[in-house]
Amino acid sequence: MTDWTRRRICCLGGGILMAAAAPHIARGQSRPRVVVIGGGIGGATAARYLADLKTLDVTLIEPKPNHVTCFFSNLYLAGLRSLASLTFGFEALAERHGITVIRNAATAIDATARVVSLQGGSRLAYDRLVLAPGIAFKFGEIDGYDDAAAEVMPHAWNAGPQSDVLRRQLESMEDGGVFAIAAPQNPFRCPPAPYERASLVAYYFKQFKPKSKILILDAKDQFSGQELFQDAWSRHYPGMIEWLPAQFIGKTKGVHVATCSVITESQTFKAAVANVIPPQKAGLIAERAGLTDSTGWCPVDPVTFESTLQPAIHLVGDAIIGGDMPKSAFSANSQAKACAFAIAASLTGSPRFPPHLFNSCYTFLAPDDAFTNAITFAPEGGSIKTVKMFISKVGESAEVRRRMAHQAVGWYSAFTADVFG
């Protein structure tokens, strides 16, 4: 797949459809109110594309002053990027796109009255609500692991301070130590990321702590991109990374913080640094608002991304049940654009378009070795199904992989500019 094709995919979900939609929006009407909760990739994209219609009052609610991208944060762990380079504020969304950005936390949703309550007691009425709550952790499924334990055995699955804790631990670890990654069962945010993390930390160890080892304690027997990762581990880091699937060790059932030990169903593994990634579910506000089902995730209409449990509330990103779409940043971006057009059609009478749903991402195996995928999806039978797929193959030349790593940097810049303006 070429650079042009990737850029075209990005635009298809946004600018082209936006240009087609805008002229059909009735003028002179009062402006419907859309509130967006969550300033991550899905929420920021939805807010931007809704605001660019110029016919809606769009408010974005986000308690943090900025967003640190999870994608590319494994490069920070390997010392290949700064955390600042992964951090984006919301100023451009407010100043260039006219979005009202409220730095506060949404605490409750009254779906009947169509009102959002904020920390401190203020309330916001909406005509449509977009919720991009991200993930929450099922701490109760790993004995001894909670917020306090995560400060010692970080998950680093929300980029930012947790990434910094893990980076400092890796830097201070003695050569010859064991770094253990406890990878969760499906579904979870960014399926290739635990294995990219192992690859890039191995790169760091190879430079500075060559006697060290990495153990991946997996709650699964297979993982995304497995052949590509295992091929790269044998080429770049022979003998350094050991993957232990669930069929040998079972899932992680507990931790012992004082000894930095991970306890699986069959063995206990003591580590110098332990990265425990817990099982996941939809963000807590979605659960409290009655937007999740028995799976812990949010069912949505695959065309409009409106909740099937509460009317006038739309959900995008990692929190939803997305059929074949992975829980990735690009998926969230694509869903948010489709959601924005659906809301515009509902509130302003602009044309309705079938959703154009995509996922595209790059995964690093080493600084000059990356692979990529690009997948198109379509609604089918009440779910979202894969239509076409491109993914890198084992055996590609070193030059192809270097080119992928180079393209990844441009992809990141273009993607984050599309989201945060």
Form type:
globular
CATH class of the largest domain: Alpha Beta
Can you tell me the residue ranges where pLDDT is under 50 for at least 5 consecutive residues?
Answer: 1-28
CATH architecture of the largest domain: 3-Layer(bba) Sandwich
Strand order of the largest sheet: 5-2-1-9-19
CATH topology of the largest domain: FAD/NAD(P)-binding domain
- What composes the largest sheet? 5 strands, parallel
Keywords: FAD, Flavoprotein, Oxidoreductase, Plasmid
Domain Sulfide dehydrogenase [flavocytochrome c] flavoprotein chain central: 165-278
Enzyme class: oxidoreductase
Domain Flavocytochrome c sulphide dehydrogenase flavin-binding: 355-420
What would a concise description of this structure say?
It comes from Rhizobium gallicum. The chain has 421 residues and is of the alpha/beta class.
Any overview of this molecule?
There is one protein chain. The protein folds into two domains: about 35-135 and about 280-350, FAD/NAD(P)-binding domain (3-Layer(bba) Sandwich), CATH 3.50.50; about 145-280, FAD/NAD(P)-binding domain (3-Layer(bba) Sandwich), CATH 3.50.50. Helices cover about 30% and strands about 25% of the residues. It is built from 13 helices and 22 strands. The strands form seven sheets. The chain has a five-stranded parallel sheet. Strands 13-12-11-17 form a four-stranded parallel sheet. The chain has a three-stranded antiparallel sheet with strand order 6-7-8, with no helix packed on it. Helix 3 (about 40-50) links the parallel strand 1 and strand 2. The radius of gyration is 21 Å and the shape is globular. The two termini are about 25 Å apart. Its EC number is 1.8.2.3. This is Sulfide-cytochrome-c reductase (Flavocytochrome c) protein. It is an enzyme of class 1 (oxidoreductase). It comes from Rhizobium gallicum.
